[in-house]
Amino acid sequence: PVAVKLSDYTPYPFEIEQVDLRFDLDPEDTRVRADLKIRRTGDKGAALELDGEALELKSVAIDGNALDTSAYELTETGLTIASVPDEFTLTTEVKIAPASNTALSGLYMSGGRFCTQCESVGFRRITFYPDRPDVMSSFKVRMTADKETCPVLLSNGTPGDAGDTGEGRHFAVWDDPHKKPSYLFALCAGDYDIYRDQFTTMSGKVIDLAIHVDKGDAERAAWAMDSLKRSMKWDEETYGREYDLGVFNIVAVRDFNFGAMENKGLNIFNSAYVLADETSATDADFEAIESIVAHEYFHNWTGNRITCRDWFQLCLKEGLTVFRDQNFSADMRSRPVQRIKDVIRLRARQFAEDAGPLAHSVRPDTYGAIDNLYTATVYEKGAELIGMLRRMIGEETYRKGMDLYFERHDGQAVTIEDFYACFEEVSGQDFTQFRRWYAQAGTPEVKVEETWKPDSNEIEITLSQKTPATPGQPIKQPVPIPLNMALLDEEGNLAEWMTVLEDEEVTLTFDLPEGTKRPLVSVNRDFTAPVRVARSLNREERLQLVRLETDPFNQWDGVQTLAKEEILALAEGSQAEPDADLVDAIATAIEGALGDPAYAALLTRLPDVGEMFLERQPADPVALNTARKKLQKAVADKLEDLIIRVLGQPSPQPFDPGAEQAGTRALRTAFITLLAGSGREDADTHLLKLYEAAPNMTEKLAALRGLAGLEGQARDKALTDFEEAWKTNPLVMDKWFSVQAVTGDAGTVAKLASHPDFDLRNPNRVRSVVAAFAMQNLSAFHAPDGAGYKVVEEIVLKADKANPSLGARLLTAFEQWRVLEPQARSEAEACLRRLQGSDLSKNSADIVARALG
Ligand code: HT7
Ligand code: ZN
């Protein structure tokens, strides 16, 4: 594909002052009439260029005068009118067929209802328009639809006139007073059950809130509503941001390419992130709903009121909004636990991306396919950069900078430079060097070397940084790295400070009081910077550090590092069995943390196989998986009594999705996982009992997952029971597909793909099999015989035809192929070459070409 470049940016030469849209909705033949009030703002001779894709043009007129076909040029990608006046109204009429739109971009149908997805370039599949975020306009929408199938008609803004139009049809008008780019346009029409509530803002305005769901699902939207109200309050208290319309609507749809979409006043959600109750959703689902509802709501200010000038600036809204939602979750739950979860996600997804052929900077300067820009780097690393900014200037100055940003740029489409100018102004600091973080791909590695001088009681700490080369960026500059550090001894913290490592290397010297014993150095506490820390400590020193560490993140991370080294040693054969001292230390850390069960649960987690790919190459996923299981079994043996005791206690009742109970359940499910990996003869019968007795989905699913990894009758019984119980609930059935995909092999995936309920058109279902297998079951996906690749290839080729966005996302599972042991590597390469020779969508072709490099 032809690359789009940041350096090619030019402003649009026209202003669209007003957009009037009229929809005559029909699944096969929807008519869209657009009246655009246009004024020239740029070059006198500029032609009017409008984007348009998969549209059947019926008519085009300027100021009411129909244009002859010779007056415009119509192509596969748009409509150009060479000569237009300086001020005029353009009217176009197009025909579209929502029922045949399988790409789920533009106007499409899900579960018999109309819905839209316009970010990033879906609006051009609805009407001809300058479909770019820097063209902001006021939208008025009138839609007509069948009254029986579509009693509810929604769009952005606030509702206006509504009524019958005869012949069983009716209409509704929606008006959005806030100027917005086309990617925030939304329309939904259908028959829903509605969960309603209200929120009173800090200035006393009463907002009507409504969540629209499938028939019969209304009560399952209660948690999403509760999360929405808490998000609204949090944004007022934390950022001084008030909601700006009288209504806020959410619509849940079954077929959706992403988690959710922040359309102005009308958020559209993947139903997986709206619907939850104790019997059908896990605590992870409740947590995800809370954070995604918050994320989309927070976009109202960081994304909608102030948007991106162009798609290269995507991190401006996404990194910042992820940072905001992470802090919301930390305030709702436990800050250290939230930090650990955020870092697990960052390392699993973003560090892997940064280390492979798909590496790109947080603000890339070129892209091949826009959909492929929605990455962990833009979102998660983007959030880390805001976190570093806040740490470097302090919370108060950060808030001042945000206030200035909101005040200065409200109603505008801006850049990262505009954002940082606000922080430079309030802090007096220069962020030129810091902005390298936005331009450079790759995860910096910070090396820590210590010298202890007992004669002078001096400790010298040398910190140095290096960012590895990434595709297209062989040479890297140093970036400012804020590192929270401490010196620890038996009593606690001897000293605590933050160093910003600006240059390639810095040496810090500390004179300590006479008689001080050699202190331990704690680095990157609370994960202040998204870097990899390299230290040449031996096991003894690491064990000591875990014991004395006062920072919960670093204590957890110390255990992770020890576990990683152990798994590597076992996988490489330099050690036959797990070291008893190490297993003792892990068990002791877990036992010591039982007062905070959510944290204790995280301590039981061993690093995933994929995390080890970053540590030593070539990586052998099968050996790593076997080694990981060995260590897990040793920890399970060590904790056997505790596990049996904890699992013998009843689960907390009545169910509450809040942090406290969720923490207790997190420990219970962690122990269920350990039990499953214990190798005990009675593990399967014990798990089956737990499965049958579990009063909530969190524990039921943990037991089912444990059983799914064990052959035998208990497994079959539980899987059959689960399917029978939940076959009419698609979201729960996704879990049934997923547990088998993460524990089975290529044959399991083939079997799941031929199940009557496997639906290639439903992204959730496809992801529950293919993404679960290819991204969470690495030893099977990367099986040396290539069977994992073949089964994924077959399904992805089919999915990609209907839905390029889905196809391309699944193919990112191949991003690590170059680091694999020779057999898997050569099978992966062969598969990628076959894919390259196939008829792929533009999105997927972009991923495959970059993966092959
Ligand atoms: N801003 C939203 C992005 C999104 C999206 C992007 C590409 C294709 C489909 C999509 N659906 C939603 C989601 C968010 O970050 O809030
Ligand atoms: Zn977002």
UniProtKB/TrEMBL annotation:
Entry's Gene Ontology BP terms: proteolysis
A Pfam family hit: Peptidase_M1
Top enzyme class: hydrolase
Domain Peptidase M1 alanyl aminopeptidase Ig-like fold positions: 442-534
Domain Aminopeptidase N-like N-terminal: from-to ranges: 20-184
E.C. number: 3.4.11.2
Source organism, top-level taxon: Bacteria
Gene3D superfamilies per the UniProt record, alphabetical: 2.60.40.1840, 3.30.2010.30, Neutral Protease Domain 2 (1.10.390.10), Peptidase M1, alanyl aminopeptidase, C-terminal domain (1.25.50.10), tricorn interacting facor f3 domain (2.60.40.1730)
Gene Ontology MF, one: zinc ion binding
Keywords, comma-separated and alphabetical: Aminopeptidase, Hydrolase, Metal-binding, Metalloprotease, Protease, Zinc
SUPFAM superfamilies assigned: Leukotriene A4 hydrolase N-terminal domain (SSF63737), Metalloproteases ('zincins'), catalytic domain (SSF55486)
Catalytic activity: Release of an N-terminal amino acid, Xaa-|-Yaa- from a peptide, amide or arylamide. Xaa is preferably Ala, but may be most amino acids including Pro (slow action). When a terminal hydrophobic residue is followed by a prolyl residue, the two may be released as an intact Xaa-Pro dipeptide
Peptidase M1 alanyl aminopeptidase C-terminal domain location: 540-852
Cofactor section: Zn(2+)
Peptidase M1 membrane alanine aminopeptidase domain location: 223-437
Similarity annotation: Belongs to the peptidase M1 family.
PANTHER family tied to this protein: PUROMYCIN-SENSITIVE AMINOPEPTIDASE
Function summary: Aminopeptidase N is involved in the degradation of intracellular peptides generated by protein breakdown during normal growth as well as in response to nutrient starvation.
Name of the protein in its database record: Aminopeptidase N
Lineage: Bacteria, Pseudomonadati, Pseudomonadota, Alphaproteobacteria, Hyphomonadales
